[in-house]
Amino acid sequence: MMRIFPIFRRNLTHVCSLKPYKDTKWLMPNGNPTGMYIYNCVAQERVPIILNDPSFATWYSCGPTVYDSSHIGHACCYVKLDIIQRILKSFFNINLVTAMGVTDIDDKIIKKSLETNSDFKTVAKKYEHEFWLDMSSLNVEKPMIITRVSEHIDTISGFIKGLIDSEMAYVAKDGSVYFNTSKFPNYGKLQAGHDNGETSDDAKMNKMDFALWKGYKPSEPSWPTDWGEGRPGWHIECSAMVSKIFGSQVDFHAGGIDLKFPHHENEEAQSCAYHNSRQWANYWIHVGHLNLKDTKMSKSLKNTISIPTVLEKYSADIFRMACLMSNYRYPMEYSDEVMSTAEEVLKKFRFFLKDVQVYANQRVNGVGDYNNKLMNELQKVIENNLETLRSDFDTASCINTLLNLISHTNKIIKGKTTDYYPVPVLLVADYVLQVLTKFGLKLSESSTENITNGFIDTLVEFRHTVRSNALERKDKELLNACDVVRDKMKLMKIQINDSKDTPSWVTIK
């Protein structure tokens, strides 16, 4: 991977020509319009996505601080970012070069290492390993590049030295280094008017100044620098690692809404100061919080839910569908009601795909025909969904449109008409499957791996025959027996969808 970075840097030199956007502090890049729009927190409105190169874009995500197990709040953030990345790549053919930073040296990691009487690296490796297992179980694609703070100390210290040399940062008496916010007029452009949480300190020139480097303490790991021993501050690490990989500018910088201020604010300030530029990240992407019903979820409140715990109850597809049915920028509620709704929507899609398979392969007299009305509806849906996704990745509207499309198609599949339209029906099913797959849904049936599908088909068809005869004769005893079979199969995670003509079945979580 490292061989391509010099090419990126050459291309990125052309991005620095920027112009204002409606008198805001966001600057519209010169380059290639993609036709897509995204909400920009600096402009406080949707703005066009413009890339220096029309075929690729750079993307950096703030990764975990690995001092504890991840929870479903983290899962929500990374699943939604994964969905956006997949949309850019699969729907709009943007080659994303993705990177993620892992904070493996931090106050909380040091505290955990002291509490457990273990080395900070041992703590970090344990929880980072857990994190990647969790991401894999959620079908979140791994970034191309993973940068760890402990492996980039020289890069970080060199970045800080550049800020000191340009007098944008200063060394305090205790060996700590602070960014001088009074010398950066645009400080606060991501979220103006908010206190960055820094406390007053005799060592600091201004209250809003933030630490780039923390001076030496005997109980903490430290590294030597030109100004003395210590360790990196939290904010500086991302700026330094991103600059090493992507140069003086990055297209997309993503993370949870809680990172918007002060973390991303500080990143933007120190990066612009280091590169002597007016804009470092062209597009900030912030994912809304995941809340429990009527309350915020956080480790401090001790009400978090682990990712494995959720996946014991709901599949990764169900969780992803819940994320797809919400707006990435706004808070999302986690509750059994929300997850059950997502599960029902997912089952509608899976039943539809099964029903289409049965419909297309049924033995009928006559000749198959085309249904121009359905074909026109499909084309309209394809165009509308592309437009919906272009407009700030509105996946919820896209899912609703797909549901309307399958409802329309089901009228043909399950209608009383003798007309047979296999081609348009199959095209609809193929499109639905393509979209859901591009969103990262696996639509797998892993629970039936040890069961022969043919045996289940035979059982379902036999039950359907018995049930149809029972309905015709109004035999309540046989109907009750069919219901017992249905309920027992549901307990085995197999749900039968009864219909007048041909039944179908899907596995459920």
Automatic annotation (TrEMBL):
Tell me the GO molecular function terms.
ATP binding; cysteine-tRNA ligase activity; metal ion binding
* Keywords annotated in UniProt: Aminoacyl-tRNA synthetase, ATP-binding, Ligase, Metal-binding, Nucleotide-binding, Protein biosynthesis, Zinc
The tRNA synthetases class I catalytic domain covers which part of the protein? 57-343
Q: What is this protein called?
A: cysteine--tRNA ligase
- Catalyzed reactions: S-sulfanyl-L-cysteine + L-cysteine = S-disulfanyl-L-cysteine + L-alanine; S-sulfanyl-L-cysteine + tRNA(Cys) + ATP = (S)-sulfanyl-L-cysteinyl-tRNA(Cys) + AMP + diphosphate; tRNA(Cys) + L-cysteine + ATP = L-cysteinyl-tRNA(Cys) + AMP + diphosphate; S-disulfanyl-L-cysteine + tRNA(Cys) + ATP = (S)-disulfanyl-L-cysteinyl-tRNA(Cys) + AMP + diphosphate
Which NCBIfam families does the entry mention?
A: cysS (TIGR00435)
Superkingdom of the source species: Eukaryota
Give the protein's cofactors.
Zn(2+)
Q: What general EC class does the enzyme of this chain belong to?
A: ligase
HAMAP family for this protein: Cys_tRNA_synth
Pfam families linked: tRNA-synt_1e (PF01406)
**Which GO biological-process labels does this protein carry?**
cysteinyl-tRNA aminoacylation
So what family is this one in?
Belongs to the class-I aminoacyl-tRNA synthetase family.
Q: For this protein, what is the EC number?
A: 6.1.1.16
Gene Ontology terms: cellular component = cytoplasm
InterPro entries, per database record: Cys-tRNA-ligase, Cys-tRNA/MSH_ligase, Rossmann-like_a/b/a_fold, tRNA-synt_1_cat_dom, tRNAsynth_Ia_anticodon-bd
Its biological purpose is as follows:
Mitochondrial cysteine-specific aminoacyl-tRNA synthetase that catalyzes the ATP-dependent ligation of cysteine to tRNA(Cys). In addition to its role as an aminoacyl-tRNA synthetase, has also cysteine persulfide synthase activity. Produces reactive persulfide species such as cysteine persulfide (CysSSH) from substrate cysteine and mediate direct incorporation of CysSSH into proteins during translations, resulting in protein persulfides and polysulfides. CysSSHs behave as potent antioxidants and cellular protectants.
